[in-house]
Amino acid sequence: MFVVLYFAGLVAFLKLYGVEFLKEPKSAIIFYIVVFIGFILSIEVNRIPRVLRARKQLAHLSGRIEGRITSHYEDTYDVRDEDGQLETRSHGTVIMYEFEVGGNTYTGKGYGSWSRQDREHQTICYDPEHPEDNLPLAELNSKTKTHFTGTLIYMGVSFLILAGIFWILYKLMGH
């Protein structure tokens, strides 16, 4: 919804000021940078309700324990590229694990990390009252964490790099 409102505001802005201001290079550059930043932010803002829902639904998984990885596989799917060729992509690594709580062994399956240090053990989040309800910490984080701060930092660095490139080009052109 935020994306729709953002683009409606963009259209209203263009109607108000006309496209003439885009013919000046400085105005066009600033305009396109603002559009890019607004688009990226709108994508992140749209994720917030889904993340908040997931936090509420998974709040009961308050227990933490190291689980032993028993097996894993890559969750893949096929898509066609621009040339019609099949390309295999990954959703991530699915891990099967087991852990012990109160003398009982529980098993589970979910998306986990497959970095070198995480291949034998990973942190498992579970419901202390019902340990059979569990998830790997990596999957819990992917569902409940926002990347808003990281996106802002990425955009800030990208903007500085882009501004530096434009400044160098401006100086090279003799201005």
Could you explain how this protein is built, in words?
It contains 4 helices and 5 strands. It has a 5-stranded antiparallel beta sheet with strand order 3-2-1-4-5. Helix 1 packs antiparallel against helix 2 and helix 2 runs antiparallel to helix 4. The two termini are 43 Å apart. It is α+β, with helices and mostly antiparallel strands and 175 residues long. It folds into 2 domains: 74 residues, no CATH class; 80 residues, no CATH class. Strand 2 and strand 3 form a beta hairpin.
Largest sheet: 5 strands, antiparallel
Radius of gyration: 24 Å
**Topology as a string of helices (H) and strands (E):** HHEEEEEHH
Number of domains: 2
Helical segment count: 4
Strand order of the largest sheet: 3-2-1-4-5
Determine the mean pLDDT: 83
Shape: elongated
Give the termini separation.
43 Å
Uncertain parts: none
Which structural category fits the helices and strands? Answer: alpha+beta
The proportion of residues forming helix, as a percent range, comes to: 40-55%
Strand content: 25-35%
Q: Would you count the extended β strands for me?
A: 5
